Amino acid sequence: MGQPAPDRPPPSPWILRFAPLVAVDAGCVLDLACGSGRHGRLFLQAGHNTLFLDRDLSGVADLRNAAGAELLQADIENAPWPLDGRHFAAIVVTNYLWRPLFPQIIAALQPGGLLLYETFMRGNDRFGKPSSPDFLLAENELFDRCRDALDILAFEQGEDSLPKPAMRQRICAIKR
Fold first, then answer.
1. Angle, alpha carbons 74-76-80 (nearest 5°)
2. Looking at residue 51, which CATH number applies to its domain?
3. Which of 18, 41, 70, 128 lies most in the core, judged by the most C-beta atoms within 10 Å?
């Protein structure tokens, strides 16, 4: 869990920037649509109990017996939300967008819980995939979806060059 595996990209600078805001004793962190678990691993290494959720857990199979790690395989787009009644000190979502889940994601944050969300936005089609509007945020969409229930600590949108050129939107918000 020290250095990223050769096929696993390093954590996002946005997530690295705000991860220290989550106290280790605040509760569990959810890495939603975790893929290789690059962000959940960051929190796990910092001492957080971390739930890795994805429809395919092969990218985090090496964590199956790791202390503090919980793995949950679930199809969150085609089945009921698997986390009813659970609340998290932080929820991390990167490079993933399924709009129907926004109410469940916000409801799953405990009071004072931190949402770290970073994904692609419209205009990304000039750089490649994703290019479908179904998977690209509209201008200010993360801000608009969060502002009624969360206090926005930071928000960015626009063209980004790292790790590769893309149009991205990012938010760091705390639940009231």
1. 90
2. 3.40.50.150
3. 41
